[in-house]
Design a protein that fits this description.
The protein is an all-alpha fold and 97 residues long. It has one domain (2-84). The chain has three helices and no strands.
Length: 97
């Protein structure tokens, strides 16, 4: 009697492992699909943003474009200047100038 119970228990355990492994394959496939969808969505958002920026620049007049370009240069230079102040104490000491 004990032998029969042991065999039945082993069969149920082995069946549960096979069913569980099949479920994980489906879950993995679904997860891959979702990751691909997320990547595609991010690409579309990035592309739409770039198109919007390009359209915004094309709408502006020549004088405004020139001002925007000049302001971007100033902003970039100012940010470069400020980045030196934001470094830590040790970074300022051990960084050569």
């Amino acid at each position: 009697m004990r032998g029969v119970k042991y065999i039945i228990a082993v069969v149920f355990v082995s069946l549960s492992f096979t069913l569980f492994s099949q479920e994980t394959k489906m879950v993995k496939n679904r997860r891959k699909q979702l990751e691909k969808q997320e990547v595609e969505k991010k690409k579309e958002v990035k592309k739409a943003t770039e198109e919007g920026k390009e359209r915004h620049m094309n709408i502006q007049s020549k004088a405004v474009k020139k001002r925007m370009k000049k302001q971007a240069k100033r902003s970039k230079a100012l940010n470069r200047q400020r980045s030196g102040r934001k470094k830590s104490f040790f970074a300022r000491i051990f960084t050569g100038k």
